[in-house]
Each structure stands twice: as C-alpha cells, then as structure tokens.
C-alpha cells in the first residue's frame, strides 16, 4: 500500500532522535529536544502555483503541530503542505 | 437517487475499519484508530481554478471534522472540497 | 410577487421531510433527520467569477445555518450564495 | 439635500411594514416580522469590479445589521454595499 | 502647515452640528445626533487600485470610529481611507 | 552604523514634542498630546506593488502602536511599512 | 551538516549582545536590551513573488517571536520568512 498526496502536499515520517554517546550508549531521553525533524516519504504533484522543492528521502525541519497526523498499517505519518516545511537538512 | 456535488466538491463515504486476525476473527473494537479513511462516491465537475485529481472509488485520507455530514436514504455521507482531501491510498 | 436574487445568490425553500410508512401513515416526527434539503426557487444571474450550476426546481443539499432566512408573504425562504450549496440530489 | 454614495454603495430606507386587514384596519404590531425590507434611495457609480444591478425605487431584501445607519434631516437611512443586498422583490 | 495624506487616504474634520432655532438660539445639545458628518480637508493622490472620488470641501458621511484621530496645531482631524467614506452629502 | 529597511518599510524616529512659550520657556509636560509625529530616518527600496512616497527627513503622522520598536546604539526607532504612515506634514 | 531553507525563508542566529566598557569589562547583563538582532546563516532561493534581498552574513533586525526556533547540533536557530526581517544593519 502506498500514499499519494494531492496537490502541494507531502507525507513525512517523524525521525525518532537517538543520541549516541562516544562509548556508543544510546540515550533516548535526549530525544525530546528535536521534535521537528522528519523524512519525506511521498511528494504530491504540486499545483500551478507551487512547484515541489523536496524529494523522497530528504530530511526536513517542520514546525511542530503543522499538518495532520494519520496512521496507516500501524505506522504514523504526517501529511502537510510543502509550505509548512521550513528547511531541508543536508548531510 | 444520486448526489451530484457542485464545483470542486466530492462526496465520500467513511470506511468502517474492520480488523481481521489471522484466524479470521473480526475485531471491530480496533476500528477507532482509523477515523480518517473514506471512499469517493461522487466527484464534482471542478472549477476554473481546481482540476479534479480523484475519481469515484478512490480510497482517500481526509482530516477529521472537515466537510459537512449529510444523510440520504439512511446512509451517511460527507461532502467536502477536494482541497480537504489529504492523500489517496493506493493498493 | 417574485424574488430576484442578485449576483451569485439563489433563493431556496426548505423541504419539510415527511416520512410515510408502508401503510401510508405520515410520521412527521422523523423529519428532524433531514434538515439540509431544499428546493431552488430562484437563481441569480451569476457574476464574472461564478457561473450558475443550478436551476429552479433542483433539489439541493446545503449546510445548516448558511444563508439568511427571509419571510415573504408568510412563507419562509433562505437566500444564500451558490457556493454554499453542497450538491444536487438527482431523482 | 441629496446623498451620493461612493463606489459600490447604495443608500436604502427601511420599509415600515404595515399590515392592513380586509376591513382596512392597520395592524402596525405585525410589522416586527419583516425587518429586512427596504427601498433603494440612491445608488453609487460602482467600481471596476462591481457593476450596479439595482436602481432607485427597487424594493430589496438585506440581511439585518449589515451597513451603517445614518440620520439626515431627521430621517434614518442605511448605507451598505450592493454585495449586502440579497434580492430584489418584484411586484 | 499642511497635511498631505498618502495613497488613498483623506483628512477630514468632524462637523460640529449646531442647531439653530427659528429665533436664532443655538442648541448645541442637539449635536449628539449627527456624529458622522465631516468635511474633506485634504485628499491623497490615490493608488493604482483606488481613484479618488472626493475633493477638498466635500461634506461626507463616515462610519463612526473609522480612521485615526490626530491633533495638529490644536485642531483635531481624522485620517482615513476613502473606502471608509460612505457618501457625499450634496447641497 | 546605518539601518537599511527591507521592501516597503521605513525607519522613523519619534519626535519629542517640545512646547516653547513666548518667553522661551520649554514646557515638556505638553508633549503628551502629540504622540504620533515622527521623522523619516531611512526608506526601503519599495516592492513591485508599493512605490515609496516618502523621503528621509519627511515629518510624518503614524498611527500609535503600529510598527516595531528597535533600539540601536541607545537610540529608539520604529520600523514600519509605508502603508502605516498616515500623512506627511508639510511646513 | 547544512540547513537549506525553502522558498523565501532564511535561517538566522540570534546575536548575543555583549557590552564592553571602555576599560574592556564585558557587561553581559546589558544584553537584555537588544533582543532582536541576528545574523543571516542561510538564505532560501526565493519564490516567484519574493526576491531575496539579504545574504549570508548580514546583520539584521527582526521582530521578537517571529519565526520558528529550531535546534540543530546543540545550536539554536530561527527560521523565518524574509518578510519578517525588518532591516539590515550596515556597519
């Protein structure tokens, strides 16, 4: 099953921030400080006014609470408009 | 009797999520977790600004509370603008 | 006396839903479940932006509370914009 | 003294509804049921976007509370935009 | 000193309504009933969207509370957009 | 250090109204009555929609509370859009 | 890792105002009076409607609370639209 967003919407998946210390110990408690990171899962076709600037796989920042949360096959996604994405994080 | 939506509106029918275990037992109690799935029942002609991107039979996600609930011949439908549909679920 | 709506407005008359049992008995108490049905009584000329899609006699669905109620010669009408009509019910 | 409304505004005068019984007795108490009827007193030149559809002398329906009440030479008028006029009553 | 309003603004001076009886006695107490009359004192150049329809000296009606009150050389003026002027009173 | 406002913004400096009596005595207490006067300190380049109508040195009236107060090198300025300037005072 | 803002957004870094007395003593307590200064860290490509007027390294003034705070690799940034930047401070 796949999700095809309409218009200038994208589907994103929130990234569970995991912090690893130098010794390799995972500190999940530190995750609370990065609530706005996500990965692009699907990109709509755009509209006459909006050209899509992101692609599947991009890591992005988005403002908390924007978009609509949906749950498909037990996984949680957020569907929002590209306008609500603030920036792409390049590695 | 048929419903013909005006402009860029569509008529959808909420999908009653039924969960079936491997042994085939239906678990209707699990239905509460997918409140935003629906099937397109009728599609308006669109407007000069909005081209219709969905067709009758599409399974779609829509944000809770959007649109207007109507009851025709004892069945409940929701009429909303295509803009309020978030994504199409492809099988 | 006739009502001529301006611009993209239409005049509608709420349909009093009457339920008839198989034996022909009218059950007006059941009427509360269809509050959004009406018949088009008059149609404005439209505007440069809005082409009229409904005609006099159409049975339509409209969202509760939209439009303005007026009383002319002891009959109640609702004047609203075509935009506020959700769909036409075809028989 | 005359009032010349600007742009797409019109000046209207609320019609005091008087009810006359068959025997000719006036029942002013019944007037409370028609609060939205008025006569067009003056019509603005319109704007580039709005062409005037009403003329002086037209009897119109308008939504209660729209417009601004003004008092000139002891008579009360309402100045509103043509947009706020719902329909013309034709006799 | 002169005031030059910008864009589609005008400067008006509220008219203190004075009522004179036939015997010539001024009744300033009656002034409370005409709070919306003013005289145009200065007219802006207009904008690409708004052509000025009033000229200095016009007596106009404006809706109470619109615009901004300013005090220059001990005189009170109101600066508002032409849009907020309802009508010109012609004598 | 200089401030360069972006787009259709201007930087203004509130004028401290000082009243001088004929004998030359300054009455700063009278200053409270002219809170909306300012001098233009810097003018943005304008935008495609907005052509700048004011120049550095102009004395202007602006509506109280509009714009954002900033403090640079211990001096207070207000940055606002030209749209928020009501009028130029010519001497 | 780099941040690439979308559309007409920019990424800024709040400047910690440090006050140095003539004798060279830093007075961080004085920092509270300049909360709106920042340095441009990244600039989006702009949109069809908005041409970018700032560049990386510009010192700018922005209105408090505008934009969204994000934290990347333990550093705090603010992402906002160029529209929310008031002025560039030139040295």
From TrEMBL, chains A, B, C, D, E, F, G:
<dbReference type="GO" id="GO:0044183">
    <property type="term" value="F:protein folding chaperone"/>
</dbReference>
<comment type="subunit">
    <text>Heptamer of 7 subunits arranged in a ring. Interacts with the chaperonin GroEL.</text>
</comment>
<dbReference type="Pfam" id="PF00166">
    <property type="entry name" value="Cpn10"/>
</dbReference>
<dbReference type="InterPro" id="IPR020818">
    <property type="entry name" value="Chaperonin_GroES"/>
</dbReference>
<protein>
    <recommendedName>
        <fullName>Co-chaperonin GroES</fullName>
    </recommendedName>
</protein>
<dbReference type="GO" id="GO:0005737">
    <property type="term" value="C:cytoplasm"/>
</dbReference>
<keyword id="KW-0963">Cytoplasm</keyword>
<dbReference type="GO" id="GO:0005524">
    <property type="term" value="F:ATP binding"/>
</dbReference>
<dbReference type="GO" id="GO:0046872">
    <property type="term" value="F:metal ion binding"/>
</dbReference>
<dbReference type="GO" id="GO:0051082">
    <property type="term" value="F:unfolded protein binding"/>
</dbReference>
<comment type="function">
    <text>Together with the chaperonin GroEL, plays an essential role in assisting protein folding. The GroEL-GroES system forms a nano-cage that allows encapsulation of the non-native substrate proteins and provides a physical environment optimized to promote and accelerate protein folding. GroES binds to the apical surface of the GroEL ring, thereby capping the opening of the GroEL channel.</text>
</comment>
<dbReference type="InterPro" id="IPR037124">
    <property type="entry name" value="Chaperonin_GroES_sf"/>
</dbReference>
<comment type="similarity">
    <text>Belongs to the GroES chaperonin family.</text>
</comment>
<dbReference type="GO" id="GO:0051087">
    <property type="term" value="F:protein-folding chaperone binding"/>
</dbReference>
<dbReference type="InterPro" id="IPR011032">
    <property type="entry name" value="GroES-like_sf"/>
</dbReference>
<keyword id="KW-0143">Chaperone</keyword>
<dbReference type="InterPro" id="IPR018369">
    <property type="entry name" value="Chaprnonin_Cpn10_CS"/>
</dbReference>
């Amino acid at each position: 099953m796949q999700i095809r967003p309409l218009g200038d919407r994208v589907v994103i998946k929130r990234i569970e921030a995991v912090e690893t210390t130098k010794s390799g110990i995972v500190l999940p408690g530190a995750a609370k400080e990065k609530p706005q990171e996500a990965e692009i899962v699907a990109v709509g076709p755009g509209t006459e006014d909006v050209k899509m600037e992101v692609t599947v796989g991009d890591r992005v920042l988005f403002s908390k609470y924007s978009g609509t949360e949906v749950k498909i096959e037990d996984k949680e996604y957020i569907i929002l408009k590209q306008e609500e994405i603030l920036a792409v994080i390049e590695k």
